[in-house]
Amino acid sequence: MYAFTLERPATTADAAKLAAAGAQPLAGGQTLLASMKLRLSSPEQLADLSGIKELVGIKRDGNAFVIGAMTRHADVAIHAELKAALPALADLAGNIGDRQVRAMGTLGGSVANNDPSACYPSAVLALGATIHTTSRKIAADDFFLGMFATALNEGELITAISFPIPKRAAYMKFKQPASRFALVGVFIAQFDAGVRVAVTGASNGVFRHTGLEAALSKSFTPESAAAVNIDATDLNSDIHATAAYRANLISVQAQRGVAKALA
């Protein structure tokens, strides 16, 4: 590791000032620190957000859960009220990485990084969540801009994310065995207005599958999902899986997700 300056702001306002001045925010560090060790990233100054108490916590606000950006995956996974009202989100958090990753990784860090195989972005997009930042609120449909790209401006920090509570929801992930990232992950959420389906791991960023959404909004059954043709044209093909294999996984995971949501 090379030399750098580490700051530990105590408030969101102090963290925002440091970020605006060029400091790299450090949340859980599960991606950033590994990138620094490999010299893929070389910030001269880090702003460690772990001491900012106002960024941690889970609370219900009407028909939504507001989760602080620095809330750890492990805490989301075991939160009793969340498990009762929105079990799909708690289940997703409980299957991220391994125990060490879940003990350190944070919601805000994952969403801000927007790894194309990360789990949380699919929940944010499928649930139509709202991302709260130090300067505004951003709808999920406007937030994700492609691989490792988001609508966040330079120096803008996520403070919390508000997740609406659906009628039914489920997340199904086919894990890449070594990394435990999603080879394909499908998050399905049914609302009174229709069904939202988000896919992660299959392409160069999380995306909504409009074909599955249309079919499941008409008939929320595994058979309806199975009847949807999954186009492999724009899906990834690599050493782990071909595009065609990923297309098949999207279909299978969608069917299993609907069955799980109905159970």
Question: How would the blueprint of this fold be written?
Answer:
Elements: E1 5-7, H1 12-20, E2 24-26, H2 32-37, E3 45-48, E4 58-60, E5 64-68, H3 73-78, H4 80-85, H5 87-94, H6 99-104, H7 107-113, H8 120-126, E6 130-133, E7 137-139, H9 140-143, E8 144-146, E9 149-150, E10 158-164, E11 168-175, E12 182-191, E13 194-200, E14 207-208, H10 210-218, H11 222-226, H12 243-262
Parallel strand pairs: 1-3, 2-3
Antiparallel strand pairs: 4-5, 5-10, 6-7, 6-10, 8-9, 11-12, 12-13, 13-14
Description:
The protein has about 260 residues and is an alpha+beta fold. Strands 4-5-10-6-7 form a five-stranded antiparallel β-sheet. The chain has a four-stranded antiparallel β-sheet with strand order 11-12-13-14, with helices on both faces. The model has no long low-confidence stretch (mean pLDDT about 95). It is globular and about 55 Å long. The protein has twelve helices and 14 strands. A hairpin with a 2-residue loop joins strand 12 (about 180-190) and strand 13. Helix content is about 35%, strand content about 25%. The longest helix has 20 residues, at about 245-260.
Radius of gyration, CA atoms, in whole angstroms: 18 Å
As residue ranges, the low-confidence spans are none
The percent range for strand residues is 15-25%
- Residues in helices, as a percent range: 25-40%
Count helical runs: 12
Which structural class do the helices and strands define? alpha+beta
SSE order in H/E notation? EHEHEEEHHHHHHEEHEEEEEEEHHH
Described by strand count, sense and barrel closure, the largest sheet is: 5 strands, antiparallel
Shape: globular
**Biggest sheet: strand arrangement:** 4-5-10-6-7
Q: Measure the end-to-end span.
A: 49 Å
Provide mean pLDDT, rounded: 97
Number of DSSP-assigned strands = 14
